[in-house]
Design goal:
single chain, 120 residues, mainly alpha, Arc Repressor Mutant, subunit A, 2 domains, three-stranded antiparallel beta sheet, elongated
Length: 120
């Protein structure tokens, strides 16, 4: 799947859509006016950009996602691992954990994921 890059405001607007979908485009205009103080045209412009990037669709005035929030952030995480750690998940985890003590529940959750990948 093609890389999708979002700016800060696009990310916040996408979060609003994911939280409220399916949502009418007219309702999005109202929500964006309150949340971001946007005019209708600004909302439609940003929505069009997100549609063009393949995140959402607007069918008959109803906006829904083509890529879920979880899928989007999984793609972003993979990109960070690929770009910054040469695709090495262990190197990423080591870097992440070096500045933050993992709780027992976090360690247990990671271990559970490893066991599932091993088929245990």
């Amino acid at each position: 799947m093609a890389e999708i890059q979002l700016g800060n405001i696009e990310t916040k607007f996408a979060e609003m859509i994911w939280k409220n979908e399916p949502v009418s485009s007219s309702e999005l205009v109202k929500m964006a006016a309150v949340e971001f103080e946007w005019k209708r045209t600004t909302t439609h412009t940003v929505l069009r950009r997100l549609i063009d990037k393949g995140l959402f669709q607007n069918e008959k005035g109803t906006v829904t996602s083509l890529i879920s929030k979880q899928e989007f952030y999984a793609m972003q995480s993979r990109k960070i691992v690929d770009d910054s750690f040469h695709g090495s998940l262990p190197a990423f985890i080591a870097a992440f954990a070096s500045n933050k003590k993992l709780s027992k529940s976090e360690v247990d959750e990671i271990q559970k994921m490893i066991d599932e990948f091993r088929g245990e």
